[in-house]
Amino acid sequence: MESVSAAAQEQSAAAEEIASASEALSQLAHSLQNAVGEFKV
Predict the structure, then answer these.
(1) DSSP code of 4?
(2) Predicted confidence (pLDDT) per residue in 1-41, tens digit
């Protein structure tokens, strides 16, 4: 049973990592959009 718990914990940590990376990418995309917007006439 411990291995199931450990696997679930690992999966949860991986999901948190993905969510964090996704948020970072979203912020980068937003910054890029703003930067590109400055060049538009």
Answers:
(1) H
(2) 689 999 999 999 999 999 999 999 999 999 999 999 988 76
CA dist 27 and 23 (Å) reads 6
Give the residue extent of every domain in the chain.
1-41
| Angle, vertex CA 28, rays to CA 27 and CA 34, nearest 5 | 90
Distance CA 39, CA 16 (A): 35
Both tokens of 17, joined, read: 């990592």
